[in-house]
Backbone:
């Protein structure tokens, strides 16, 4: 899929202010600093579209980006940010989980996993929660440029093994780098396929 346009639409702290759920939508989620905003910029080829930072906790709101005037990419705040207070974290949970469970136009969630790390409890728990709530998700390993392909594959295999302790099937996986564009075409092709089905099911 070619990206012809990508524009910021709105930031929200409230789910009742979101754009009308008339277009297919894809949310990016994962631990703070895992590379959600960077991946959105890489997919759209627009460097400053989603704000990125070396300091965890940069993205604080639900941010909608309209792509090719036909679908939305959604940048979410990260979970597992140690410096956030307990009250803030509870608020995050309520708001994001409400969004994920109730957004009619949400097609699936991309769960981003740092390819350099051993399986993390917080990621596995989040995937379990998605599974329990029947929310379709995919796994995206990020920052693959930071290490050898062998190391990335080893960590992905460990994550797969951990996830398969509570899931019968492995969700689709993508290995990515926002630095060199690895995995970009695969993710866009995947989204393109779902977009086509959405048009068929729900003509506007
Ligand atoms: N080398 C490399 N660095 C990356 C990659 N993706 C993200 N980064 C860096 O990792 C840091 C965090 O990236 P962000 O995209 O802001 O992460 P985020 O998940 O949106 O973080 P929060 O909004 O704080 O939750 C930044 O310094 C990015 O430049 C990647 O694929 N390769
Ligand atoms: Mg971010």
Residues:
């Amino acid at each position: 899929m070619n990206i012809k346009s990508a524009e910021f639409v709105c930031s929200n702290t409230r789910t009742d202010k979101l754009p009308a759920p008339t277009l297919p939508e894809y949310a990016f989620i994962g631990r703070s600093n895992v590379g959600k905003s960077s991946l959105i910029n890489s997919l759209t080829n627009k460097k400053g579209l989603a704000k990125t930072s070396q300091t965890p906790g940069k993205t604080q709101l639900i941010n909608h980006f309209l792509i090719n005037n036909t679908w939305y990419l959604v940048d979410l705040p990260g979970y597992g940010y140690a410096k956030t207070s307990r009250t803030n974290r509870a608020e995050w949970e309520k708001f994001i989980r409400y969004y994920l469970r109730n957004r009619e136009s949400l097609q699936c969630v991309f769960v981003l996993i740092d390819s350099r790390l051993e399986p993390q409890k917080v990621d596995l728990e989040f995937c379990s929660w998605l599974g329990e709530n029947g929310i379709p998700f995919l796994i995206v390993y990020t920052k693959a440029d930071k290490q050898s392909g062998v190391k990335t594959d080893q960590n992905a295999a460990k994550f797969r093994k951990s996830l398969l302790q509570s899931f019968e099937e492995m969700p689709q996986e993508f290995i990515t780098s926002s630095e060199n564009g690895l995995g970009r075409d695969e993710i866009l092709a995947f989204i393109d396929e779902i977009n086509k089905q959405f048009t068929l099911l729900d003509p506007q």
